[in-house]
Structures are given as C-alpha cells and as structure tokens.
Amino acid sequence: MTQFIAPTSASRPHDRRRRRLAPAFAAPVLALVMQALAVAPSFAAGLDQLRAFLTETRSAQGEFSQKVLRANGQTLESTQGVFAFSRPGKFRWEVRKPFEQLMVADGERLWFHDKDLNQVTIQKLGAAVGSTPAALLFGSGDLEKAFALSEQGERDGMEWVEAVPRQTDQGFDRIAIGLRDGLPAVMEVRDAFGRTSVFAFEGIRRNPELSASLFRFAPPAGADVIEQK
Description:
This protein is an alpha+beta fold. The chain has one domain (13-227): outer membrane lipoprotein receptor (LolB), chain A. The protein has 5 helices and 12 strands. Strands 7-8-9-10-11-1-2-3-4-5-6-12 form a 12-stranded mixed beta sheet. The radius of gyration is 17 Å and the shape is globular. The chain starts with 12 loop residues before the first helix and ends with a strand. 40% of the residues are buried.
C-alpha cells in the first residue's frame, strides 16, 4: 500500500511502528457512507451500488473507525476520526483518537501531518493515491482501469465487492467493500504482510455544501516539512 508517511531517522521506534499502521488512504486512505442515498435499492448487486455511489455522490462527510488486525485476528491498533471529500480529488481524513493525524488533499497535492512529531509530508496527489483504497472512494477516474472488480455476494447484511489492484506493487493484495442500501459501510484492506485494516463508516451526510477551507492546509510553524517528488 502506498505510504503517505515518510519515516525519518529521528523518529522514535514507537512512532515508526505507529506510522506504519496509520491509515493509508491510500494509505489511507479511505471513506464514505451516507444516511440518505436513494440512487440504488438495497437489493441491487454490489457492483451496481458501488458504481452508483461513485457517480451520484459528489461530496460527503462523516465518521470512521479503523482496526488493524494481524492474520490471527489480534487487534494491533484502533483509531477513530472524521472525513470529508469533494470530487474530483479533494478529501480530508482526520484521525482524532487515540492520537491526532491529518491528511488533506486539494486536488493536486496531499499533505500528511503528524501532530505529535510536528512533521508534514507532501506528495503529488496522483502518485499518492493511484491504485489505492482512497481511489475507490474519493477518486473520479475509471475505477476498472486500476482494479479488477468482482461480486462477492451477501455477508453480514451487506453486498460485497472485491477489488484487486492491477498493479502488483501497491503494498496490498485486495480490498473488500461491503455496501448496504447503496452506501459503502465497511471496507477491508489486506496488505502484503497478512494484516487487514477494517474501516467502518457511519453518520454520513451525502452531497453537503463543504467549505473550501476543509481542503487547504498550511504547515504549522516549526514543523519538519518533507516534500516527496
């Protein structure tokens, strides 16, 4: 999975571990469920629901929770936060608990801010997102150019779609998206090390008017800024 975080030699061991597990939307990261989407009936196939969501939802905001699990199901880390997006290419992914991290994309660049380290990493948006979980939810391009999509049937009251990246160097093997009533409700991302990141989305507002300031970011004074070309 493409990593938004660039570890430095000055990082503490605990920080490096934590940053490896941070959401990668693309790394993560991801995002997006709404309480009132009427574009697809609940009995529609998963692919139909996903395509309708991507085409009919221009903006959204809501809450997320994430768990990172070992292959044996043991929880490595849990985080909670809020997100917002506006197509094309603008999103905000804000971890609030148990620590604070922020990803902001303005359509051209992506900023990752680790508040504890006072470190900011900047990347070009296309290079950072590409064929990543973020592209599935925030992107606006041709999804099937980046992923092989397939129906996975019903599980836990949701219709599931599997997305396998067509490029093999993305750092993750597969993504499974559970949809209910036309909305992505759960996303499972399995990485190359056997870990699975499980994202749950709730409390979503579909197509709200969002302030442009949500998708702007200025590094705080004294921050260590790393710009990746």
